[in-house]
Amino acid sequence: MRLLQLSHSDLTRGVEALRKAFRVEAPLPERDHFVFGPLPAGAALDLSAANTRLSAKSVIYPASEKMLRVSLDPAKEDHHVYREADKDYSPRAVLGIRPCDARAFTLVKPNFDNREYRDPYWVRSYECSTFVGLACKSPCSTCFCTSAGGGPFDTAGLDVLLAESGEGFIAQVLTEKGEALAAAAGWSAAAPEGAEAALSAMKAEADARIVSRIETEKIPGKTILSLFDAPFWDDAAFACINCGACTYLCPTCWCFDIQDEAHENEGVRMRNWDSCMFPLFTLHGSGHNPRPNKTARVRQRFMHKLKYYGDKYGGGIHCTGCGRCVTHCPVNIDIRRIASLMNGYEPDNACAL
Ligand code: SF4
Ligand code: SF4
Hints:
By secondary structure, the protein is an alpha/beta fold. The chain has helices at residues 8-18, 57-60, 99-112, 120-127, 176-185, 195-209, 224-228, 233-237, 245-249, 294-313, 324-328, 335-344, and strands at residues 2-7, 23-30, 33-38, 64-71, 82-84, 92-97, 129-134, 160-165, 168-173, 256-263, 266-273. The strands form 2 sheets. The protein has a 7-stranded mixed beta sheet, sandwiched between helices.
């Protein structure tokens, strides 16, 4: 790890220099919020957002992407031959990503890239990306990353981490990819003596500002069946309107559906985000639905986030504590409250909501 000092103009000049070698994506203002997207030519990098409304997962894993294309024109020789859709996997710099969203990629990676299966679209999209994070000096009241395994200065999943300091930034260059990006940006000025201590002090101050937490410590010791049959799920799910907002906003929700579409003589196979909160998600062709009601669907979402993921992948929870689902659920279903119920539940000591 190497520490560099950047002024604001170093950052601005660096972003322009990066455009020669990278596609640059960053938070972009859109009405009253920010979303990740390609930074338009000439546009300045705006790092004023506490976080983007939708997480940065769409940068690697778009909400809707073409997987394959096929000609449906019987006159064509390659009629009905499926070919991979054209995609751009040239180097990409993702600038201004918050530590919770960068860490989310490390949590979803075992699903998309493991010994039995490699999702080619996700893996290539992830591997062509270099992540330049922005440490959170003023976290939101709904952030609970420090009890979800991360933190406002967490470096997991990042190649470079920028922390605002004085008139510019201290940049931690963390990986070889980060070194290549710093070289392309022309960032080379070593941080002054004392920068490491300053970073530690900023980190401690930011950590202390996270007052919200999620309680999950006792969940690994409980059996799936005991939690599955716990009496609080009906009450927990009562207000849910199955809108799916929690899953679409979440940086770690990964479910998708695959559909073929025909447009005159052209066909495409699309992969679209889906949601375990929708009744259709588990509806079988036979008409049977193993998750037939919202209690079953809400239970699935929280059991997956807080129990199944840790059991399957060797610990931890499938949540970074970004707080988006807490902020945007229209009926105030709060993962911290559900975690507390699961954490405190003992089969002989059933607790009420
Ligand atoms: S479950 Fe909620 S708080 Fe956790 S990562 Fe997903 S959106 Fe963020
Ligand atoms: S955002 Fe809230 S209401 Fe909508 S599906 Fe998620 S838990 Fe249910």
